[in-house]
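Pasting two entries for a bug report.
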Amino acid sequence: MIVVDVPGKLYVAGEYAVLEPGSPAVLIGVDRYARARLRVTGTSRRTITSSRLPGRTAEFVRRGTLFEPVPPADTAALTHVLAALATVDRYAAELGHEPLGFDLDIDSQLDDSATGRKFGLGSSGAVTVAVVRAAARAHGLRPTAETELKLALLALFSVDPHCSGGDVAASARGGWVYYRAPDRAPLAAALRRPGRSLAALVARRWPLLEVRSVPPPRELSLQVGWVGRPARSSDLVQAMKRAVSEHPSRYRQFVTASEHCVDELAAACDREDSRAITGALDTAGRLLRDLTALSGVAIESPELTRLRHIAEELGAVAKSSGAGGGDCGIALADPSVVPALQRRWREADIEPLNLRAIGGSLRVRLERSASKSAGNTPD
């Protein structure tokens, strides 16, 4: 049994601007996980189990080189899972590997366990990375970190060629991550081109793409508050695109300012300059509020404004995280004020999530199965 745990993500700075090719963001991989558990069965069938499926389990049968649902079923909840499997299947086939039958179980800590509401920790990206890692391991592949990242990005872009991919990068790398987005349009077009080698696409250099670790602030405590109201990022992004299309020059100014802010933040982290780090975070929040004034899209909801004001009253710096409209806000605070900050957030119906950045490689292990089917890989 192959078990993969992949961290969720939070945006620190660069939201919305990161959608532009070559524009950077800083994100964090955090210690809430998406988990993929995969057991190779040696059959021509696949089962996928997820709490998001109406019947919890979907079954697929191999027809040629493809796996089709039986009976025909609504698999919309598995869009990112199936995209990740299709990407790895195609990559493995080009390397001479036969399609595999297996049982795959998807579990997530990235939503509220009591209500199922999303925290905004990037579950789609984390699940994509987890499934790519597990499926590649099942095929006996040992892709490099760069190859694995590119496979996960291609799977994500096959679902939505306009997304940034920042959540995938943060989940794949963990810790504090500087991410510069590639130009997705030619990558998505190459994926659709008949006869195009996926392995060759992964092996080549992708212009603009950059992913590197950033040292976390040592003298500041990262605090995360959940406002209790989930937001649908894709809807906010589409509304933003429509709104800023009427103001291209001013939007370009926002993107340029965001790029400068993110680079300043990363440089301040590199030299461990706490004052410059908080200054850059404050600027990142202000830029997003200016973007709201330009577009009319409410990034900082009233709850997130309250979260920020409480942090500022205690001498901390705070902003919305991600697309906004709900979900989470973050603060960088002196450790001495954290108890008061968390108490006042709770009094304002904001839930401190007590997340921490998790670094290092993804957690992968093998578990011994209770029973073994013919053709299983060794446990």
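Entry 2 (this is the one that rendered wrong in the viewer):
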Amino acid sequence: MFSVCSWTARRGRGAARLAAAALMSGLVATGAISGAGVAHADDGATEQSGASATLAGLETYDSAVIHEGGKDETVSAGLFRMTVEGGGTLQTYCVDLRNPTQPDAKYRETSWSGTTLHDNANAGRVRWILQNSYPQVNDLAALARKAHSGSLTEQEAAAGTQVAIWRYSDKADVDAVSPAAEKLADYLERSARDLTEPAASLTLTPQAVSGRPGERVGPVTVRTNAESVSVMPPTEAAARGVELVDEKGEPVTTARNGSRLYFDVPKGDEAGSTELTVQASTTVPVGRAFTSDTRSQTQILAGSSESTVSATATVAWAGEGAAPALSARENCAKGGVDITAVNSGDAPYAFTLMGARHTIPAGTTRTVTIPLQEDQAYDFRIKGPHGSEKRIRGVLDCVTTSAAGTAADGGLTTQTGKQPMPASVGGTGAGNGTDLAETGSSNATPIIAGIAVLLVLVGGGSILLTRKKKVPSEGDDE
């Protein structure tokens, strides 16, 4: 059985999602992009940094009650388990509680700035709770003594921890059903202190660089908590004589935190691009956020086994004219997706995006934000010459339901049953023999998750590379 720790969201939010998708569904942006471009068929909202995992289910949990609008709703509260691509297991609690979880949803590690925690002054307190409660503190007797709760089971410890997190992540009026779990939640809420956001398990900075043939293009700096990182130079670029080297010009196959990597591009090489991937095995820092490209609620890390993590970066080069490289990331502060253009060439890089013309002068870096509505499912296909293409997709999830405003129906829809049932999208959560409420954001949730908005930028440039293309140099151009 697959359980969710979410509860029934207001129907008004589901209607808003439909309206947003309908508004954007026919939108096409045409771009006049010129200059040396890069291609990337990667399937994600941002370049890979850290762990990627699949949601396995709600594993250790008990019951809690949400109080709102004079109504109560019973939900599951506790620890999820995720399986990491390449090996490893993660334990997570959920934030953004009023959104559903999707069975087998794919998640990626990300910064708080791309989640509902981006403007939450209490996000650091959530991290304190994670570090000072179950499962990081697995001595339940010691935890119970601090909380003055009496004995605690694993299920009660998980539920109490989740309840305390929801009080800060969602400003929820929520209580644990178990008295012991409730006392733990109160202790954690009362004791929590502000902590800083943890660093990524593995990232490359910047995620896109550009330059000229005959020089070292870069650097790309490795940031990681792993002792050692495996470096996988792109084989197609190597066949053209492009080498991945360190600051001394020596070829590299391994790196560590702080290593600076360069692409040594042969003089006289055609315009082109390639991608670097690095990989390591490490534990992901507690407090790292995980978001999904589908409509599945944000998770926050409570524990990690030794897990596989990876990161990518792209390089582009051109002999003359503009030499742009681009990357993308969600930016909740601005309510959209940032497209960052790096132009290391000797001519401006100009393009038109969604009706607005942008120019990146030679030797500069600028960011263009694609505005999106909250809960907008987006699927951008940014095309360039020679069939090159970058796909950016996901769901913008930056605001909790309570922060988004009150819905027209004015409250919750609660449905309980005497037997736990298997959960589906918008279905019922299964618990430890307890009555659980209907979950999901609305009956429209699966529809919204599947809506793709195609924004096509047609021209002589493109974004980021997976299929390494040779791109001719032209004049002008997250």
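Dev reply: Rendering is fixed now. As a check, the viewer should reflect this: The chain has a mean pLDDT of 74.
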